[in-house]
Design a protein that fits this description.
This protein is α/β, with parallel strands linked by helices. It has 12 helices and 10 strands.
Length: about 325
């Protein structure tokens, strides 16, 4: 689909010619007219996809769940772990995610995948437990041929990456853990559980278009400093990635993840990064991660954004630290 869009001058963000119908398929958004026929060998060659644009591929987890993944760039393997929420087709042109993806792919082979049941991954999926999510990470790494790799784990992918590194220490070279947690909100304590339940209730009752008050509030929850273009692109990606019912189920599953038993067993060098004003995952969880993982380094960002934004001064500081950390032998 990405190649087809590129061939007709379309993109996953514009969808002016090929429109994604969520959970259904694709639809031509323009009239089609036959103007004649020519032998196949007389046709114009199909243009290549835009430089660097990755093609989406699929792998199957041990429990039969389908996983969409993509890779771009060349160099040492770096996996951006799947999290809530991404969309492999829309992210590459998204002003929220594109600067991060482009930076991570510089001098590296960037491997990424859509969390099971979201994005381009099939909607039917099995249980979302820590074990199955670790299996998903291994499945994508195997499909991409990455025997040993670095991992950039944002948000709820953090406990998954920790468990993966503990189980497969020979496969992980370095870990970057951004805005994550050691324990999910449902098991941390009454105050955190209450906040998580309120968030789930808002998702259940207010999912809508980007102009909707709830969706704007949801965006502000994750990235209070976002521009109007970033909010619009973020909401478009959310609605394309998942249904409100699935969003509720995913958030509830995420809130029960617990990596406390695995953190002390991590041997890979680890960089923990957390924004002081993060309201999605409290700063104290970043500190708990750095204490629980042997020899972990900790970087505090002066920011309120759970999703780091390129215009935020903290973004440049974060990426400089990530590049330097991953470049170490």
């Amino acid at each position: 689909i990405s190649a087809a869009r590129a061939a007709v001058g379309d993109t996953g963000r514009l969808q002016a010619v090929i429109h994604t119908v969520v959970s259904r398929g694709f639809q031509l958004a323009v009239p089609v007219e036959t103007v004649g026929s020519e032998p196949a060998d007389a046709a114009e060659p199909t243009p290549e996809p835009a430089p660097g644009r990755p093609g989406v591929r699929f792998a199957t987890a041990p429990d039969g769940t389908g996983l969409a993944w993509a890779a771009a760039g060349t160099g040492p393997a770096l996996m951006r772990g799947g999290h809530w929420l991404t969309h492999l087709e829309l992210d590459w042109d998204n002003p929220v995610w594109q600067p991060l993806l482009a930076r991570l792919a510089q001098g590296r082979r960037l491997i990424r995948y859509d969390f099971r049941g979201t994005g381009v991954s099939p909607r039917d999926c099995g249980d979302q437990t820590l074990d199955t999510l670790v299996d998903d990470m291994r499945t994508v790494a195997d499909a991409a041929g990455a025997r040993r790799l670095d991992i950039f784990a944002p948000s709820q992918n953090v406990p998954v990456a920790i468990a993966f590194a503990a189980r497969y220490p020979d496969r992980v070279r370095r870990l970057v853990l951004l805005g994550g947690f050691l324990q999910g909100a449902a098991i941390r304590g009454a105050e955190d559980k209450e906040l998580s339940d309120a968030f789930v209730a808002l998702v259940r009752g207010g999912w809508g278009p980007h102009g909707d008050a709830f969706m704007r509030s949801l965006s502000a929850f994750f990235m209070p400093d976002a521009s109007e273009d970033q909010v619009r692109a973020f909401v478009t990606m959310l609605r394309a990635s998942i249904s409100p019912e699935q969003a509720v189920a995913h958030r509830q599953a995420i809130s029960r993840l617990d990596a406390r038993a695995f953190a002390p067993r991590v041997t890979a060098p680890t960089l923990v990064i957390h924004a002081r004003g993060d309201t999605v995952q409290p700063f104290s969880q970043g500190q708990a991660l750095a204490r629980a993982i042997p020899s972990a380094r900790f970087l505090a960002l002066e920011s309120a954004n759970h999703i780091s934004l390129p215009q935020d001064p903290a973004w440049a500081r974060m990426m400089t630290a990530v590049d330097a950390f991953l470049a170490e032998p």
